[in-house]
Amino acid sequence: RPLITHYKQYPPNVSKVYSYFECRHKKGEQYNEVVFFGLQYLLKKYLAGRVVTEEKIQEAKVFYQMHFKQSVFDEEGWRKVLEKYDGCLPIRIKAVPEGKIIPRGNVLFTVENTDPDFFWLTNYIETMLLQMWYPITVATLSREFKKILAKHLKATSGSLEGLDIKLHDFGYRGVSSQESAALGGAAHLVNFCSTDTVAGLLMAQRYYACPMAGFSIPAAEHSTIISWGKSREKDAYECLLDQFPSGPVAVVSDSYDIFKACKHIWGDKLKERVMERSEDSALIIRPDSGDPAQTLIEVIKILEERFGCSQNSVGYKVLPSYLRIIQGDGIDLNSVNEILEKLSDEGWSAENVFFGCGSALLQKINRDTLNCAFKCSYVETNGKGMDVYKQPVTDPSKGSKRGRLSLRRNSDGFIETVERGAGKPQEVRSDMLVTVFENGTILQEYTLDEIRKAAQLWEEDVSPSQHNKEDNSTLESHQKCIMNGVH
After folding, report:
1. Distance from C-alpha of 418 to C-alpha of 435, rounded to nearest angstrom
2. What pLDDT does residue 466 have?
3. What is the rounded distance in angstroms from the CA atom of residue 313 to the CA atom of residue 317?
4. Beta-strand relationship, 317-318 and 310-311
5. Spatial contact of 350 and 149, defined as CB atoms under 8 Å apart
6. DSSP one-letter string for 319-363
7. How far is CA 278 from CA 16, 249, 251, in A?
8. Considering the chain, what is the average pLDDT of its residues?
9. Whole-prediction pTM value?
């Protein structure tokens, strides 16, 4: 949008512009709650400190003259920012604490100018701040995976042990940029600690004070298998067992025929080598083609025939502890649920499998996945405040909130947005929105550990009736946290 020209478009004598961000809610949508994550990175990277300099002003002046073919750049306004605030932005941002689970349709953060001279700054930074849609959507999607995995793991094993490594981030090569990999990879790490997206680990380290947020294991790729030639497939697999004698190792086994590989190589020629391994040094076989559910069921049956299985405490079958499967092809929310349901129907525990997810986790999403919007709701003109809003006759769902906003729990324990500055003094004090940024300074920071704790699953999140329920708002007042000890 031509934000550069907006300062010319506001009414005369405007001194305050107040806007907010939300994930709008429509009845019947798939996701009813969101995980708030990523604002701290954007603030640290792009808004904190001295962001306006004379050099930048001159560069922008020339650039926008060329772009618009007329003089529309507010050189005077930006120089005032430089002179009055030493290049720091006179803006206040209040936001939900990162990691909080908030029902759709509620305010997540607000933005306002702190100096009447700079009313135009509030929505000038809309484009950058609206990119919050991406980390919020990835963190939300990742948590939905976690709900499904937790439900099936609890039902078929009796516990949630190992839940935080059940979904591995395979998405690095499938995203649009290094920054997407970093931000999306870090968003996944709010819920899991299993990843191959190193950029996400570095972001968590640099911006969220987590020295090492996720882990991986040695894993074969098709090039390292087929470079041996088809006639030496067994040698390729044996090399991996030799090179990584301790610790888990994942071996893609479908370069030619996954079923023959499991039956005749892993289950015959290398059977003794596999059985020598321990639970802490498991062989993890990776199918990578075909129908995910059908292929995985057939593979697990072959492995049962060759290696046997046992029965866990709730009556489901488990392969020997030195043998597991990871399915990383064709994985999304629907296929994970389908695979786990079919495994359960066949008597298999979710303990047997891990999942890898790439583009469905980090790339096949957009701003409309959660209907993210940034809208102005309050202005002050000539010292008088006015609640403002949009209300399109062609789409009522795009109507926006009015006035100054606060976020609270009502008497029933549900989170709700209070509009039009209607919060009573005691409610304002309990506002869930925290001032995180003011006049160039970050006032509140969160560590990834704190964020993970806030985003943890509760018992209601994994009950079968809860998934896709119309209002499944997560309450802090839930009695029992089922994730103790996982993070």
Report:
1. 17
2. 40
3. 10
4. antiparallel
5. yes
6. --TTEEEEE-SS-SHHHHHHHHHHHHHTTB-GGGEEEEE-HHHHT
7. 65, 11, 16
8. 93
9. 0.93
Alpha-carbon gap, residue 394 to 398, rounded angstroms: 9
Phi, psi of 278, rounded to the nearest 5 degrees: -110, 175
Contact 189, 200 (CB under 8 A): yes
DSSP bridge partners of 167: 355
Strands 323-327 and 353-357: parallel
What DSSP state is assigned to residue 485?
T
Report how far apart the first and last C-alpha atoms of the chain are (Å, whole number): 41
Residue-level pLDDT at 2: 64
Q: What is the pLDDT of residues 382-415, one digit of tens each?
A: 989 999 999 999 998 899 999 999 999 998 989 9
Q: How far is CA 449 from CA 98, 388, 408, in A?
A: 11, 38, 24
With 0-12 CB in 10 A as exposed, 13-18 as middle and 19+ as buried, what is 306?
middle
Please name every residue paired with 441 in a beta bridge, in sequence order, or none if there are none: 438
CATH of domain 147-363: 3.20.20.70
- Widest Cα–Cα separation across the chain: 84
Q: Provide the residue count of the chain.
A: 487
Q: What is the Rg, in whole angstroms, of the alpha carbon atoms belonging to the chain?
A: 26
Q: The tokens of 209 are what?
A: 């004070």
Where are the chain's structural domains?
Answer: 6-136+369-461, 147-363
Q: Which amino acid, one-letter code, is at 328?
A: G
Residue 131 has pLDDT above 70, yes or no: yes
b (16+ CB within 10 A) / e for 341-365: eebeeeebbbbbbbbbbbebbbbeb
Residues with Cβ within 8 Å of 290's Cβ and at least 6 positions away in sequence, in order, are 254, 258, 329
Strands of 64-118 (E only): list them. 91-95, 101-103, 107-113
The second-level CATH assignment, the architecture, of 6-136+369-461 is Alpha-Beta Barrel (3.20)
